[in-house]
Amino acid sequence: MKRFSGILPAIVTPVDDQGGLNTASFEALLQRQYEAGAHGSYVCGQTGEGLQLALEVRERAVEAAVANTPAGRHVIAHVGAASTADAVRLARHATKAGAHAVSSLPPGSAYGFDEVRRYYEALAAASGAPVLKDAASGSGSARSDTRCTADCTFAAAAGCSFGRGGGAGVGGAGGCGTGSCAA
User: Fold this and answer.
1) Which of 11-15, 119-123, 165-169 has the lowest mean pLDDT?
2) 171 vs 17, 19, 40, CA distance in Å?
3) Where are the chain's structural domains?
């Protein structure tokens, strides 16, 4: 699995008065990140309000991020959505647009382990790129050993990876803090 390292900040997603992507502002933000030494960008995650944006806006943001990312740097696209079908659509699009990986929060809290595993398997199958489990909300960075074991099992079962250090990973993608969740 591809390894990501360095600083990959989560970027905000500026929108215009109609709710569309403000491309000029977004490109300026990307340029500023890269001029400051960022090694990549995490697009449409919680900082970028991805879950509140229309799918088309999220797709344009990924396209703009890929087009404005210097060679040797990485774009990770958050593809979590209200439905698995929308998340799969976003994952497929992100990879075709040139994103180096996709990431997603787990689906809502009413789902069991097997359903969440199938969700990440669907993302992995749709994208063909590394899938990072975003643990920024709900699951938090303070995990019990049981939760860490369950999270690490997702990595083995669905081709996901985790950042090291409980929330300190790439774009908020966190592990259990033991370092044992890095796939």
Assistant:
1) 165-169
2) 27, 24, 10
3) 23-136
Q: Are 102 and 76 in contact (CB under 8 A)?
A: yes
Q: pLDDT class for 155, splitting at 50, 70, 90?
A: low
Beta strands in 97-147 (DSSP E): 101-104, 131-133
CA distance 139 to 48: 19
**Which pLDDT score, from 0 to 100, does residue 113 have?**
85
Pair of tokens at residue 127? 């994208």
- Six token digits for residue 83: 């439905």
Report how far residue 30's alpha carbon sits from residue 145's, in angstroms, rounded to the nearest whole number.
37
* Phi, psi angles (nearest 5°) of residue 133: -80, 115
Distance CA 121, CA 140 (A): 22
Read off the pLDDT of residues 38-96 as tens digits, 9 standing for 90 and up: 999 999 988 878 889 999 999 999 999 999 999 999 999 999 998 999 999 999 999 99
Q: Rounded to whole angstroms, how far apart are CA atoms 164 and 101?
A: 17
CATH number of 23-136: 3.20.20.70
pTM for the predicted model, two decimal places? 0.76
Burial class of 21 by CB neighbour count within 10 A (0 to 12, 13 to 18, 19+):
buried
Q: How far apart are CA 17 and CA 153, in angstroms?
A: 43
